[in-house]
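Flagellar motor switch protein
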Amino acid sequence: MDDASSQSRPSADQPNPFSAVPIEITISVGKARPLIRDLLKLGKDAVLPLDKRVDDAVELYVGERLIARGELEELEGDQQGQLAVRLTEVADLQDGLG
């Protein structure tokens, strides 16, 4: 049986050609909701409060889709000072993250 759709799917021994394509993930640490009059007054050294606390989870998005949650941490060793995210919850990409 010659099924074109099954021929286009990668098999277990044939890697998906898209697996090496980089994708951008946006990490959301929170949102700010200032009044416009307050926003217009912002300048250097202004502090803009967010709706999250330092120890709250951050959210990882691909486009508009939430794919995971995690905790911010600092890398050590040669990459000391570099921010990273330790994943604490990962979405089932079929059903999303609840």
